[in-house]
Amino acid sequence: MNTLDNIEVDITVELGAAIMPVHHLLRMGRGAVIELDTGENDPLRVYANNTLIARGEVKVEDGRLSVELTEKVRRPA
User: 70, 56 in Cβ contact below 8 A?
Assistant: First the structure.
């Protein structure tokens, strides 16, 4: 079991995405709002090492944010 303790996995949680030119991004200031391609009730996506593994939703309890997984994504055989 000790060998599993040394395996690194990069976890990414994606709320949504947006495409914009770099010059537009560079002009943005603090507090700027970027409109994403998802709504507030759409599931977020969870990636492990750039592979989609699950979908979920954001939960707020006692002022703390967490991610609740609602669906495991199955890889094609």
Answer: yes
32-71: pLDDT as tens digits: 999 999 988 899 999 999 999 999 999 999 999 999 999 9
**How far is residue 21's CA from residue 73's CA, in Å, rounded to a whole number?**
31
d(CA 34, CA 24): 11
Burial of 10 (0-12, 13-18, 19+ CB in 10 A): exposed
**CATH class of residue range 2-72:** mainly beta
Q: How far apart are CA 30 and CA 15, in angstroms?
A: 20
What are the residue ranges spanned by the domains of the chain?
2-72
pLDDT-derived band at 77, boundaries 50, 70, 90: low
User: Helices H, strands E: what count in the chain?
Assistant: 1, 4
Residue 17 is which amino acid? A
